[in-house]
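Handout, section 4.2: multi-component inputs.
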Amino acid sequence: MTSVRVQQEDFDVAAEIANMRAGGTRIGAIVAFIGLVRDLNDGDEVRTLTLEHYPGMTEKALEQIVADARQRWDVSDVRVVHRVGALAPSDAIVLVLVASAHRGEAFAACQFVMDYLKTRAPFWKKEMTPGGERWVEARESDDNAAARW
Amino acid sequence: MIRLVYLARLRDVLGTPGESVALPAEIGTVSGLLAWLAQRGGAWAQELAPGRAVRVAVNHDLARPDTPVRAGDEIALFPPVTGG
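Output:
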């Protein structure tokens, strides 16, 4: 099973975790992060969020982030599923799963993957609000979060 | 020839998803390429001006201003990323 997927369809968190658990009995902890679409951003109602990516580079960038996490922490498995296309409030956007013998490594590696993904993986969000469409601007706080690693 | 790819907001403001162009012989780096494209004026000059937050990837790897560009490369220009 590949560690990185970019897809339009939703993902099944339970199935993804079951698949990871089938990978071995040395796993003592699995940390999952699930990013969701909010219906409010910068004070405006968000009706639709459209995710765009750069096919080829996006998968390569995610694979590099996963490889970095595996090198930095003693984790046995790292997986990322990221959706693209039109999403609605409360829809899932991204799933990061990290398995390790103990929780500390898995928590840290999961945060690292998300912080790097937010600043290095080529995805872009466009929001449909009552005032029209707008591209989401990158946040300085995301750069700061990635810089701490 | 090089293949230029414009993504997200840059594609919208430049009005095209991409193009193939002949790379002038004197252009050998990402910064040189951006300066050359900015000479087109209008949205090109505005979006690719020094100091604007434009990210560049050469053959699917994030590039820096001094990254070399060569004939046959796929070079993507895009705004700072906002996934996750």
